[in-house]
Hints:
alpha+beta; minor pseudopilin epsh fold; 2 helices; rod-shaped; 8 strands
Amino acid sequence: MRGVATHRATQRATGEAGFTLIEALVVLAVVGLLSALAFPAIDRARTAIMARAARAEQTHILLAARANALRYDRPFVLEAMPRGAGVSVAPETAPGQAGDRASAPAAAGVLQSAAITSIEITPRRIVFYPDGSSSGGSIRLTTADGATMTFLIDRDLGSVSEAVRPRA
């Protein structure tokens, strides 16, 4: 113990007890530079993660629409929400059709994500039928970072596949 106390007393006497102002400023400058380089990369990674989550949710909604059509034995419609802000899935109802509203969900799903800037459905609405088929079509999602994802819905089988295009 005596050696440690003597060493501390020597540090205080010679001025070696801490950092100089220049050393502290250099450390702060290096930390600032590293954080300035890291924040844009973190933001890009966050956008990519949000887009990946939106893609997974879109796939889930499409598969759920087909499954609901099979389960409830009635057509389910996928439509774009106003201004391309998202998509919604609900049972199809004909004008004047009473139907059994208690047995089918009011809405099978809604996709709205901050990572998605636009959604285009071709044709305007896609119908999944109780026999497993669909009206067919495609859905194109554009993400905030400019990437596009296209989902293809097969007319005969009602199956969903994703056509991935590399960013230009």
